[in-house]
## 1
Amino acid sequence: MGTGKPASAELARSHDERSSSGHGHGHGHGHGHGMSVDADRRWLAAALALIGTFMVAEVTVGLIAGSLALISDAGHMLTDAASIVLALVAIRLAARPARGGYTYGLKRAEILSAQANGISLLVLTVWFTYEGIKRLITPPEVEGLLVFITALVGIAVNVAATWCISRANRSSLNVEGAFQHILNDLYAFIATTVAGAVVWLTGFTRADAIAALVVAALMAKAGWSLVRESGRIFLEAAPAGTDPDQVGRQLVARPDVVEVHDLHIWQITSGESALSAHVLVQPGADCHAVRGDLERVLRDEHHLRHTTLQVDHSRPEPGTGTHCDDPHGTVHRSGRA
């Protein structure tokens, strides 16, 4: 009785109506609106143009100067460019409407992009760490002045690219992944500038290898963060900062609610979470009114708008049999019988 789960056709229609009115899905970002998506694409494309142009020049100068720090920066910029391309592709895929077997659409393409960015950073970390240690042991000749000048130009390019991506929607883990790539590259260029100045002014060529190791450390930090956050979404963990037990206790404390079980909270993609639960209410209570009250609490206090609540009476009424005798997961009871 009053389950809150209409027949499939009605559910699909309800889903479309909620989505069109802006109340069905809790998008923390603007990817539900064409204008915002187009703006994201423009900012990402501008950053890509800056990075691609400078990367070619940096590889050339790095080879001439014999600088691992510059080449490592160029390698990092290559992953920057790849991360932006992935982000652009993911934004296009995520914007496609849900159809067929993909009931959420392709929204998780953004998370695939973020995870690919994180893994690429970790792989590059291993290679640059190896090369940096090797050059610490046997330092090659490095043209310090050339490294210094190129790194200064690199700082300017990365500041511009970082600004471009910061203007896009960073609540998306996909865009945040590209942003972290660019931001870490900016830090890397600062380290390379210092290394170039040291080599130029003192002749201490190991400074170049030390700068490359600093770059590797920054890559490891950013890469692990992206892999961890995207992994949480793939494993359908609750959003960071959301405690399912606390949510369950809050729901069961509402008027007429006797028990809450089969409670699941997960992220569909960054900025879009979902919840489902089975709720038992006191005999004779208005299931629809209780469900409306719970949806309001979830929406206003936990920013959960994509919710599916099955609401039944705590004891089966004649001819129904809606009582769940085998609940799964943590069971929250109010003490009201």
## 2
Amino acid sequence: MVLKLYAGARVSGGSAVVALVLALKKIPYEYILVDMANKENKSAEHLKRHPYGQIPVLDDDGFILYETRAICKYLENKFPGQGMRLAPAMTDVKGQALFDQAASVEVADFYRPMLKVVQEVVFNKMMGRPTNQANLDDGLKDFGSKLDVYEQLLAKQKYTAGNELSLVDLYHLTYAPSLEPAGVNILQSESRPNVKRWWNELIGLPAWVQLKGEGYKHVAGLAAGTTTGV
């Protein structure tokens, strides 16, 4: 049975990251639209899949899984030899420990401060609310201080969990790509050349560019091998 990915119409958030992993690992899947605008995510049917009424959700022949990072790790563990390897082998104890360390850092020291900024410059605008400048300034200061540490780490290694691209790097692609279109270029600052180099590589991944440009349906076909370009 082909995997089913329940996601919204917009290529963003965790759904986009899961779709990217599916494409990089060349895993066939069916894209099923959850109409967020009409609150389909809060329907009784969807709440059976995700008790919090969110996306993404993965259905693997009746095995239902939600939460982006859990889905991505599941895909890597189930298909370790397919497409691109995106995590250390389970037998690599130290590699797994460094992967888990980097994954924890991504949540605590990137995602959370980044989301404060996205809330002000992206989400508030989408909801028709004004930007709270004090909150934005505080968010930029906090996020910038975390990126200063990223700069030090990425000066010593190519990616966040070592010298190989991994799921942890891809986790950073939830909402951070929306910052530059909103006029916040903190991830491409010349003052942090290693962060800039790393970030430009992530957003320049061919599979990511195609996903953003052509949507989930295209990448579902890409994963299944009906198109090329990953």
## 3
Amino acid sequence: MKAIIPAAGQGTRLYPQTHTKPKGMVRLAGKPILGHILQNIAETNVEEVVVVVGGTMKDQIIEYSRSAFSERFAFDFVEQENAKGLGHSIYQAESVARGDELLIALGDMLFENKFNAFLDAHDELPESDGSIGVKEVSEPNHYGVVEMNEDNAVSRLVEKPDDPPSNFAISGVYIIENSNALFDALGNLVNNDIRGAGNEFQLTDALQMMVEQGCNLRTFEVEDWYDCGRPETLLEANRVLLERTKTDGDEQLRGSVIIPPIDAGENITVKGSVIGPYVSIDNGATIEQSIVANSIVGQNAVLQGVNISESIVGSNTDVHGEANNLNVGDNSSIYF
């Protein structure tokens, strides 16, 4: 089995953080979003990973993946030169993934479940050409939606419908047995310029085409997931991941009040401050005479005399004086 991670998106909803880094390299709870995804996949039997990259900052994705996970995975990096949708992104992997069983994991989604649980759930289903992780939601028109027949086989899929046929939203994890049929469908969309929601080539539309051509797709249930492409859900994912860790209270945190859970990087300085709960501090950061809660503090950032919560502070940023709620990009200076 191969995994495909589409990680070429520009991440406009995370501006200003993604002005200087790809969305997958935004850090929370000790590692980049991509790192959490790869770590989760590393617990499965997947040995090969295809990462779809794009844009001027794609080298950050490539360098991080190789440096952090080259001993675990064999990597292929394929480029999506123009952002034309998720289906178009997956289609770029055809040359290295056609014919393989695939685990498709979106590059900005973190899950309560482990990928091992998804693979086990797939294996327990009747024989199929693939399966899709779904969750019942209250506003399905914001998502790709799945309609199922009486034996729970997928009968219809539609992306962000005005009148949803069900409340079952596609969660962003797919297990494809028949990748030949998938790439045939994606090729049909792209080569015939058949665009869907957002004027993009949608993976949902390719899966619907598979169903229309007689492929048997099924579903498995996914618990909560976190779309890390938005600041509020990025902070929520940070909280959930930190709940699973323990603070060691090492020397660099002494002399301040620490309210776990937090994640503290290397070579940080914390003096006369109250830190936590749910704070992720990247390497080299300095926090003095401050109160920081429910926040992500970037590499080499400096916070002095601030009181912040529900905030994202980028790398190499200086923030001095009173504050409350911030979303500050890299290499910024703010004085109150």
